[in-house]
């Protein structure tokens, strides 16, 4: 197990593994949807970082719990060209990450990397942020009711301020949004985030 790592998360086909490969090897390589995490080291500015690419498939997302105790930062990759169609899935996964007690307790910083920004159909980061805030706000009311009904669930922290619409500014974690494009090898903002 690594002592401290940077995690890459997101739903299938967002470009997580392609970004992981570009970060690690400084080149694009063909990727396939994985059911197992990829672990490796990344060197930026003569400093080594442990990087973990976690599968986005719904059945194996729970694996990120294994890495939470050693997670330094989270890069949550979003496909900015398909968010309109996948908003519910993306928001549910992001909600799961944000509501984890350990993520909040450790105030793990989260970068929302809006991939495929080079495409004409890509949404700008401010639109991605607004859409995710609105969807998490809807999810929050249904999730809160569900958690109150079942005491067997792991405790989830309430996201944001009660009685107010959800905003990323309302969580204790640092949450930032950047546009990027693995295809155009435009990931400098992600590298800067990892460098801290």
From TrEMBL:
A Gene Ontology biological process term: Golgi to plasma membrane protein transport
Location relative to the cell: Endoplasmic reticulum membrane
PANTHER family on file: ADP-RIBOSYLATION FACTOR-RELATED PROTEIN 1
Top-level taxon in the UniProt lineage: Eukaryota
Membrane disposition: Single-pass membrane protein
Species classification: Eukaryota, Fungi, Fungi incertae sedis, Mucoromycota, Mucoromycotina
Organism listed in the record: Rhizopus azygosporus
Bilayer-spanning residue ranges: none
Main location: endoplasmic reticulum
The protein's name: Signal recognition particle receptor subunit beta
